[in-house]
Amino acid sequence: MNRRLLAVCILCPCLATAQDSLSTTSPVNSQGRLTDDTLHLNEVTVTGYATNRRLLETAASVGLLTARDLNRRFGTPTLVPAFNTLPGVRADERSPGSYRLSIRGSLIRSPFGVRNVKVYWNELPLTDAGGNTPLNALDVRSLGRVEVIKGPSGSLYGAGTGGTVLFGGLAVPAGRSSVEVSALGGSYGLYGNGLTLQTGKNNAAVSLSYNHLQSDGYRENSALVRDNISLVSSFNVSPKRTISMLGFYSDLYYQTPGGLTEAQFRANPRQARPGTRVTPGSVEQRAAIYQKLGYLGVSQEYRWNDRIQNTTVLYGSITDFANPFITNYERRADQGLGGRTITQVRFPNGPLPTTLTIGAEYQRNFTVTRNYGNRRGTADTLQTDDELRAQQSVVFLQTETTLPARLLLTAGLSRNELRYDFTRFSIRPVSPQRRTFDPVWLPRVALLRTFGPNVSVFASISTGYSGPTSLEVLSSTGQFNPTLEPERGVNYEVGVRGSALSSRLRFDVAAYQFQLRQTIVRRSADNGAEFFVNAGRTDQQGLEAQLSYDFVSPVSRSSSLFSLLRLWQNVNLTDYRFRNYQQGATDVSDKRVPGIAPTTLISGFDAELRLGFYAHLTYQFLNPFPLDEANTAQADPTRLLQATVGFRRTFASRWTLDLYASGDNLLNQTYSLGYDLNAFGGRYFNAAAPRNGVAGARLRVRW
């Protein structure tokens, strides 16, 4: 699949200028010459559905984050604030370094980590066979692009009810080499530095990055230290073949302060979870995460001719994980491997021009988990000794057909299979258990029509399926759950997008209804351990809108004082409710699904002067939402103001200096960035820092 045609989504809150070129895995064209991947603003391309069509011709809701959104809009190097600018997407950090992410859904499945969302880096799966994604192993400073497909996308990426995230790396300038060094410092002991080496010469593109980040944290027991090294490379070995590689290693340590009750949160939001007469607290047990992860993937793109091409990838990963917790000390070793192949055949000259995409994906994970007693941060007596094997496979097919009357029909189908094998070797061994889920077929169909060169409408019906993850069938209670059922649902969606006033006004509106059955939700025991149950049916309705206006037209940009002057507004309206669901003896039917704000408003203003000065302002508002299924506890309204100002200038055509300062929570609100939903004892709250800031510098030289 051709990954060179990447550009910037015209409906993204921050539209990149020509300086924000985007990286690909294949920066070498079919004639062997390196290409500069910077495209004009009217050449907007989406890669998520394999055919590299313009966003205007994509019959789906897609969000895009550019290099500006990830690395320049927000000074703090984390994915969370950038993700939260996209309607329908919500990310948080219950502890610094502990990411959670949902796309058009609730976090009721995710006490920690990323679940029900599939993540790829240029066709290389980052989500393992057990359905878990180590998002905290990535450093945002090594990313150049994020594309988010909202809703079920099983026609190309297999099972899932949440959505799909596609990552891309930093831009590699064609025909040049560069070195960039960076440093930052901020509130609560925040410090980081980075080094990036790149070369785009000799029919190759190589990017090597090292990034360090550390923080003392705002709360007790919330320090973080993270080191990341990544290598992304691509080589044109012949006019028809391109070999690419992704490798990264992450060494992450962060402390986990734990959830607070509302009374504790109001009295002292900085405290860690205190102990009781029954259980010790987070500080006493030295609760923390130690995670070392290595990943290596190789891909080959082969182009037989202008109509047929194939991309095949293979990867392997290894994880060393330790978690001293309130009640136990978990040690886990995980090995993963898998591959993916995708072939595309074009029939451009028939009466109905068609592109056929067919492929398959296979993954295996082998996990050894040992749980011990926790004696003040030291592993004590062995409690359980388990092995869990996860295996999943996907076969998929998609066709895109151009019909008369400016219609584009997309139809897809995938077959998904999942299996777990569990063996316990501890003091009370049990017979090996197997949980095999019946293979499921997931269809998707979408129809799009364009009206002139600037407006299109689309409608789609897609099916979703999400099997329990490995951390749900074997949760922190230490019990293997062979009865947990997969989630299944159907998504209906309509949308309109386009531009007006010489492309200065841009809009993207989508409405959807997702009917989900056997919804998986989290429960917690009194000691804090979690387990999972199926919660019957949920109805999820939503409206997403993006609107932006450029005060500087593309025609006058070269002569204006401003290279960018934009006002934008994103809106997310939801009504997610349980249907036919009993919580023990309590009927919670028609109650709101916890963790989803009925109204989310994200406003922004971006200004960039041709002299090099820039400023980005972002305001987010979330109205109260329930924290438990009975809707007895509510979150506070969230009002966040973030701003970044800076100066970026190129000197002597080789040196580029970028100085910036950023402020977060400028309204000094007391709020919880990440809530523990359905938490036992009402320990819902994880306090975020009050007003804080960060400043930094980047220096790059090219030759």
Automatic annotation (TrEMBL):
The keyword Signal applies. GO terms for molecular function: siderophore uptake transmembrane transporter activity. Residues 290-666 form the TonB-dependent receptor-like beta-barrel domain. Keywords: Cell outer membrane, Membrane, Receptor, Signal, TonB box, Transmembrane, Transmembrane beta strand, Transport. It is a multi-pass membrane protein. One of its GO terms (cellular component) is cell outer membrane. GO terms for biological process: siderophore transmembrane transport. It holds the Pfam family Plug. Residues 56-164 form the TonB-dependent receptor plug domain. This is TonB-dependent receptor. It comes from Fibrisoma montanum.
